[in-house]
Amino acid sequence: MRSLIQPRRLRYVLAVILTLVAILAACAQPAPAPAPVAEGIPADAAGVIAERGLTPDDVYAAVKTYMPTGQYDPYIMFSSGGQSGQVLVIGVPSMRILKVLAVFTPEPWQGYGYGGATNKTLEGGYVNGNEIKWGDTHHPNLSETNGEYDGQFLFINDKANARLAVIDLRDFETKQIVKNPNAINDHGGAFVTPNTEYVIEGPQYSTPIGWEYAPIEDYAEKYRGLITFWKFDRVKGRVDPSQSFQIELPPYWQDLCDAGKGPSEGWFFCNSFNTEMATGGIEEGNPPFEAGTAKNDTDFLHIIDWKKAEEVFKAGNTENINGIEMIRLPTAVEEGILYFTPEPKSPHGADVTPGGEFVVVGGKLDPHVTIYSIDKIEAAIAAGGFSTDPYGVPIIPLDNTMEAQVELGLGPLHTVFDDKGYAYTSMFLDSAVARWTLGGPYAGKNPDEPWKLVQKLPVHYNIGHIASAEGDTVSPDGQYVVALNKWSIDRFANVGPLLPQNFQLVDINKPGDQMQLLYDMPIGMAEPHYVQIIKADKLQPFEVYPEVGWNTETMSVDPNAVTDPSQARVERDGNTVEVWTVVVRSHFTPEHVSVKKGDHVIWHLTNIETTRDATHGFAVPAYNINLSLEPGETETVEFDANQAGTFTFYCTEFCSALHLEMMGYFFVEP
Amino acid sequence: MGVGVRSGDYMNLLNLDPDVKVLLPDGSARRLMDYLIPSAILMLAALMLMISMFVPYWHMSLTAPQYPKGLYVDVYVNHLEGDVREIDALNHYLGMPKLDEGGRLERSISIIAVVVQGLLLIAAVFVHNRWAAALALPALAFPFIFLADLWLILYTYGHSIDPQSALGGAIDPFTPPLFGAGMIGQFGTVASAGPGLILAFAAAGVVLIGLWFHRAAYKPIVDARNKVKASTSQAAQA
Question: Would B93 be classed as within a structural domain?
Fold first, then answer.
């Protein structure tokens, strides 16, 4: 008997099947990685080093900060844009500006405030109906989850007008500006609680409560400090004023604040610097503010129980003033929301250590930083029996709250932290960064003795704020410190009497006295105040909008989106002309739009591109219109055609080889 | 039987039950496996065709300085995937039709056509004469028809340039290559067969193997039947 199934034939069939599998498997092959130059410096590079007279430290700084093309910085720094009213996005350590985000000031490139929904965002920041054309941005703060930056939102205050802005980090665009209805100005903002329950806007110069007039003679009686807890709705990505509240404070010029975390979660700390209640009037022979506010040896660190304040607000023990609920000062005292403890002298900053155990306050005119212990503060509050200030606020003696004082030198301002138990304080008068050691649970994380100054690194010049990588979180990264210097004097080529600011990057990787200056970055557009530095991989913004027809205000598809040129059209209803335009390389559809003088024009534009960087602009001359239509974006601009004539609209982003041809005619018949 | 397994025993392992046999009309017996094998191979070919519908048949990648990640289009039997939108946006400068406009009819009927080919292969399992080969013919021809049709679509693309487009007047009609590299403006193109097409060709090969086993299994039956028929008629004549 013969069988068809013989081993030879089976092998043949198997071979066919194996070949098939091999062909399919061949589809994915890994690309070989380029080999980095590991050792030695090329002769021509050594020539450059010699020719420029670079020191070994210079070469180290250069290779530490140089970012080859196409490589990304591991950290992103969000910087206050100072008087520009904007926010800068900067790569660290290369210190390259990646973008300037339009926040409080109209900005044409982003089409911010030149027609479209961003006009509405800016209108949110109008003061009593008056257009405000700028902002004095001070303190950017990233949203946090469990005390870690989560990369979702950025908040920043406008000191000049007491406003707060919300930036959505999905598209790096400002979504909301809220005007504080009871504050003229602010400084201590924006700060977030460890889970971004609240964004906190502290006041600065005291004014009468309720936006009222009161002569300076009524200072002690009518002028007040004010702290605002803006409730943040993470789902909507907006501050909800109806769920927000304020606390009335004595008129002590509260300044910079920080939220407690870990053992201090639920507390909020602010320094203040006019417990003297100086009222100025140099022209009348009174001490000027600079002297009057610096008279006392100590001012008050404000210790605020925000969780208790929230309970009081929810219980309705508030007063509605100008549309927002306010916990009045007597209520705050009675409910045990507010405590003081002395802080020396002309203090600045209130910075909570990563683990939440301590609060560090610099004394501008005192050579120390003073470190307060939350355990001691809580024990003292539990023990009770305090003296009070003229407004009845309990004052806890310094001896009962202080953990340590570290002498650093002249003009200590702000303090940041790393992962090795070091703290870094900006020394304004010394023009230096002071590295010192924390004690308590941080002792032993580095070879140095606790609560001691370790190194003072000169910076150039007059350092204000300071920041470290992820330095405000519960787990700082160390790596880098950035000194935000107010003066640059001789650091850059002379560009006239108004000088750029100087951001200096400092390497803090090595322990002890080995901090090294790496890079000077001129900021020639305003005076930034504060920055925060986040790990770049925590940011996951859109590359292009997720769907064609995206409305960036609602973060969803716009009902007026047109996704195909066949849907483009012009419709007239009485005196209103509505246009639906499709925008794609390199043409608008339609290209001819005719209206009559006096018509109200509603113009919807959809960029139907889905390719990264295929942004188009839309400018209409004489009508002050310029939109930035990023890939997938739909925008609507409304205006009255009040000038007759033949106008040319065109694309303002160089989009393609035929970009100049991307235009159309807008006819306004007389 | 000892612990060691001899080569003949492998066959016994494969042969589900050596005592189950097929009795031919002339009284000879064959193993059941001889008949299961061609059926299994043809069904495997049908399965491969079915799988091929879910993976791309043809792939074209485009590279240009301003597209560091490149662009690509994957052609499935019934749809296109990849940067179709962007390729269309670029092609509009040349006045080329949208990718979606080519092979619409083919894409609309492809699923049914492939399923029918698979069903015909399964039908061939049950047809025990030379007509089985005819039933397998569509599956054998399919990958060749696909390629011929794709060439025609590519030819049509390259020869339907709208003279009204921005560059329409400057471009000579052309046929993008079916396989291998090409160049259009600053774009380098590379076209290659996708796993689906490779599967379809492999399925055609498997069909041929299956038919060989099919013939080897069923020809003896036909022969035996003829032999019996012949001997019966001889007996009748006698």
Answer: yes
Distance (Å) of CA B210 to CA A521, B124, B147, B195, B217: 73, 10, 24, 21, 10
Q: Which ipTM was obtained for this model?
A: 0.76
Cα B96 from chain centroid?
30
Domain at A550-669, CATH from 3.40.50.450, 2.60.40.420, 3.20.20.70, 3.40.50.720? 2.60.40.420
Tokens of B134: 């005819």
**Which residue range(s) make up the domain with B106?**
30-219
Chain A CB contacts of B198 under 8 Å are 20, 23-24
pLDDT tens, residue by residue, A456-465: 999 999 999 9
Pairing of strands B58-64, B29-31: unpaired
In a 13 Å sphere around the CA of A286, the CA atoms on its Cβ side amount to 14
Instruction: Pick B209's closest partner by Cβ from A13, A586, A661.
Output: A13
CA distance B219 to chain A (A): 12
Query: CB distance A7–B31 less than 8 Å?
Result: no
Domain ranges for chain A: 550-669
Taking a C-beta distance cutoff of 8 angstroms, is the pair B152, B178 a contact? no
Q: Do A1 and B28 touch (CB under 8 A)?
A: yes
Tell me: pLDDT of A600 over 60.
Answer: yes
Helices B131-158 and B195-237: crossing angle in degrees, nearest 10, is 150
Measured CA distances, B229 to A503, A648, B23 (Å): 103, 93, 16
Q: In angstroms, rounded to a whole number, what is the distance separating the alpha carbons of residues B161 and A415?
A: 67
Task: Report residue A424 as tokens.
Answer: 């870094």
Residue listed under structure tokens 């290369």: A94
For A42, counting Cβ atoms within 10 Å of its Cβ (0-12 exposed, 13-18 middle, 19+ buried), the class is: exposed
Residue B171 has pLDDT above 60, yes or no: yes
The beta-carbon neighbor of B31 closest among A3, A12, A13 is A3
> Residue A308, SS3?
helix
Q: What is the pLDDT of residues A500-556, one digit of tens each?
A: 999 999 999 999 999 999 999 999 999 999 999 999 999 999 999 999 999 999 999
Q: Is B148:B230 a contact under the CB 8 Å cutoff?
A: no
The whole-angstrom separation of Cα B146 and Cα B149 is: 5
Q: Is B10 a member of any domain?
A: no
Residue B6 has pLDDT above 70, yes or no: no
Contact B30 A1 (CB under 8 A): yes
What residues form DSSP beta bridges with A153? A168
**Where do we find the tokens 């859109």?**
A542
The residue in chain A having the minimum alpha-carbon distance to the alpha carbon of residue B37 is A5
Strand, helix or coil for residue B35:
helix
Strands A238-249 and A324-327: parallel
Q: Which uninterrupted H or E stretch holds B46?
A: helix B33-52
Q: Are A235 and A143 within 8 A, CB to CB?
A: no
Residue B235 lies inside a defined structural domain of this protein: no
As a three-state string, the secondary structure of A507-539 is: ECCCCCCCCEEEEEEEECCCCCCCEEEEEHHHC
**Cα dihedral across residues B118, B121, B125, B131: positive or negative:** positive
- Look at strands A663-669 and A592-596 and give their pairing: parallel
Does residue B109 sit within a domain? yes
pTM: 0.88
Task: Give the CA dihedral A601, A602, A608, A614, nearest 10 degrees.
Answer: 70
Q: Provide the 3-class DSSP secondary structure of residue A334.
A: helix
Residue where the block lists tokens 């219980």:
A315
